[in-house]
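pasting for ref
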Amino acid sequence: MELKKMIIPSLIGGLGSGFVAALPVINCCNVCCLWVILGGMGAAYLYHREATIQMADGAVVGAFTGIPYAFLTTILYLAIKMLIDVFGITSEYVKFRDPTALFGDVVFAGLNTLVFAVIMFFGHLILGMIFGALGGVIAALIIERKK
């Protein structure tokens, strides 16, 4: 397991999946964290091009994918939310994605944007690392079978 060789594949997989997962219409296809699983698989494939990969390597590189995924998804979601708030765009999609519209203002009355961003980041981080590791293991199994 070579951690230095895992950095670039993890960044590429995490940033790619984070960007796609944060896009307003495409993120509706994010069933069971599909984008971060694919990001973990992509990171494992890129790592495989540099070194031999085993299941543990796939899990680690996939889990590392969750870190840039969490950062980018949170930042892009908050930026898109601010743009929507500034321009006053409302639609059923926005109401579906906005927790304050879903549960009402009473629940989130004391919850400011910073606290929400921190909670959102750590949720994305935990789920991103778990499902990224799953994607890395799946990719490692596929790569090992092809040998």
